[in-house]
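Table S2 (text version). Query chain:
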Amino acid sequence: MSIYKRRERIKQIINETEVNTQGELARLLSLEGYAVTQATVSRDIKELGLVKEKGKVLNYRYVMPDKIQKVSEDKVIPLLKTFVSSVSVAKNLIVVKTLEGHGSACGMAIDKLDLKGVLGSIAGDDTLLIVTESDEVASSVEHTIKNTLGI
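Corresponding C-alpha cell output:
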C-alpha cells in the first residue's frame, strides 16, 4: 500500500476516532494491514502536520490543523477583563500588565483577537509585551484593547 493511501487512512482514522498516541495509531493501521512502525507513524504525523487538541473522551487527540477548535471572542474577553490591570503604549510596543501568573494566558487571549498590525507578543508572569508594525498601529491597538475591556 502506498504512502499516500496510508496517510489518507490516517486522516480518516483521526476523524472517526480519538487517537492520542503514535503507538495507538500504529496499532490501528496494523489492524487494517498497513505494515508500520511507530517511527513511520511519527513521520506521517509530522508530514501531515497533525496537532493535538483536547479530546472529548481522551485527554488529547490528534487532529488536522484546520480542525482545531477556534476560541471565540466571547470566551476570550471575559478572561482579559478578569486578569488585565493596565494597558500602556510606548512607541510601537504595548505593555499589558496582568494579575500575577496570568501573562501567558492573556497573551494567548489577545493573540486570538487577531488584531491587525500586531507582529507578535511575548509574555512573562504578569506582563505581556505586544510588538506592532508602527507607533500609530500601537496606539490604535491600545485603544481597541482598552475599549474592548472597558478600561
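Notes on Table S2: Helices lie at 3-16, 22-31, 38-48, 73-83, 103-112, 135-149. Residues 135-149 form the longest helix (15 residues).
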